[in-house]
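Support request, priority: normal
Reporter: lab tech (M.K.)
Component: structure prediction queue

Hi team, I submitted a job for Response regulator transcription factor from Pseudonocardia zijingensis yesterday, and the status page still shows it as pending. I've pasted the exact input below so you can check whether something in the sequence is tripping the parser. The sequence length should be 217 residues. Please let me know if I need to resubmit or if it's stuck on your end.
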Amino acid sequence: MTISVFLLDDHEIVRRGIAQLLESADEVTVVGEAGTAAQAVARIPALRPDVAILDVRLPDGDGVSVCRDIRSAVTPPPACLMLTSYSDDEALFGAIMAGASGYLLKQVSGVDLLGAVRTVAAGGSLLDPKATAVILERLRRGNEPVDPRYESLSPQERRILGLIADGLTNRQIGAEMYLAEKTVKNYVSSLLHKLGFARRTEAAVYAAEMRKGGHER
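Reply from support: The job had stalled in the queue. We restarted it manually and it finished. Here are the results:
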C-alpha cells in the first residue's frame, strides 16, 4: 500500500529534508507541500493525501486550524500529524480537539517519524493517553464559571497574556507571533484595559492564577 503525504512547514529547507526522508521509504510518496496555512487549505482537498504533516506555528495561522479545516472539508479526512519545535500544552489541547492523530516534536528521529506516518495512515493514534486524560478533565471543567474579563479577550490577546506570564518582552512576543512590536504593544494595552490592570506584572500574576485554576484556554 502506498501512503500519500502532504507537508506543511514555513521553512523550505525543513520541507525538503522531511520529503527526502519520507521518500526513502518505498511505500511513502509526498504528493504536495505548502509554506502557509492558506496554501495548505487550498491544496489538500484536491490532493486527498492519506497523511498531512502540519507545522503548528505558521506565518499566517497555525497547523491546528488547518487540521480542523481539512478534516471537515475532505472525505475521508487525512490523518493529521502535528509537528512543532517545542512542547506546548495549548497547542496539544487544540490538536486533540481538532482531531489530530499525533503530535510530534521536530527533534523526532527519522525512523520515528516514518513509524508515525505508517501508524496514523493505518488508523492508529500517537497521542499520549495521559495528555488525552488532561484534555477530558479540561472539558469537564468547561462547565465551571470563567472570569468574564478573561472571556472578553480575543484569542490573540489570550495568547499574548500567556506569553506575558512566561516573562516575554513585547519584542520577544512579536518574534514568537510574527507580529510587529508596535502591534504587540497595542494588544497588551487592549488586554490590560479589558482586565482592568495598569501594569503587565498584574496581568502576569492573573494569567498564572488562571492556569492554576485550569481556566486558561
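The radius of gyration is 19 Å. The first strand starts at residue 3 and ends at 8. Let us know if anything else looks off. Ticket resolved.
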